[in-house]
Design a protein that fits this description.
By secondary structure, this protein is mainly alpha-helical. The protein has a domain of about 90 residues. About 70% of the residues lie in helices and about 0% in strands. It is built from 4 helices and no strands. Helix 3 packs antiparallel against helix 4.
């Protein structure tokens, strides 16, 4: 039986994180390579001047070298930026899912068997979320058992005490985490 692959439809799912991170890393890399290119061109020019070539004879070569370096730099920047978007996607995807799971939990919805996609980071977080959800479900089961015990005790008592029992029962029910079990 083949394992079903879950792929995201969009490359950018958390623009604030993905684009900002990709821009910062790409920009810092570009600055490094621009400085490196300046050093290379200066060293090349110094070497050519030391060869006692006629003035202006190596200028076309330097222009072509500069254009070549600019083209390579732009190509590298594009490839790196796109690669970083893919890489940050493997971080942003699980974090978006974790945020949604936490929102669901706050709203009283249970999350069963939290999974991330192959290649994503933070698989241990998915396992921890599943374990926490299991503990919360167990807690809710205990609250349900306690509620039934309260019903059994107060049903045998006079009606005015039963009203107090319903109040206590409602307070105990508020201890439940998940509304929909």
């Amino acid at each position: 039986m083949s394992k079903k692959k879950y792929k995201r439809k969009y490359l950018i799912i958390d623009p604030a994180f993905q684009v900002r991170t990709s821009v910062i890393i790409t920009a810092s890399t570009a600055v490094f390579f621009i400085l490196l290119d300046i050093v290379i061109i200066s060293a090349t020019k110094s070497h050519l001047l030391a060869m006692n070539l006629p003035p202006g004879s190596f200028e076309p070569f330097l222009r072509k070298l500069i254009i070549f370096q600019i083209v390579i730099l732009l190509l590298f920047i594009c490839i790196q930026f796109f690669g970083l978007l893919i890489y940050t996607h493997k971080i942003a995807g699980p974090m978006v899912k974790v945020k949604n799971i936490l929102r669901n939990t706050i709203n009283g919805q249970k999350n069963t068997n939290t999974r991330f996609r192959d290649g994503d980071f933070f698989f241990d977080v998915a396992e921890l979320i599943t374990a926490v959800d299991q503990k919360l479900l167990e807690r809710d089961d205990e609250v349900n058992k306690l509620t039934k015990q309260i019903d059994q005790v107060f049903i045998k008592l006079p009606s005015d005490v039963q009203d107090e029992g319903h109040i206590i029962k409602n307070q105990v029910q508020k201890l439940k985490i998940f509304d929909k079990i």
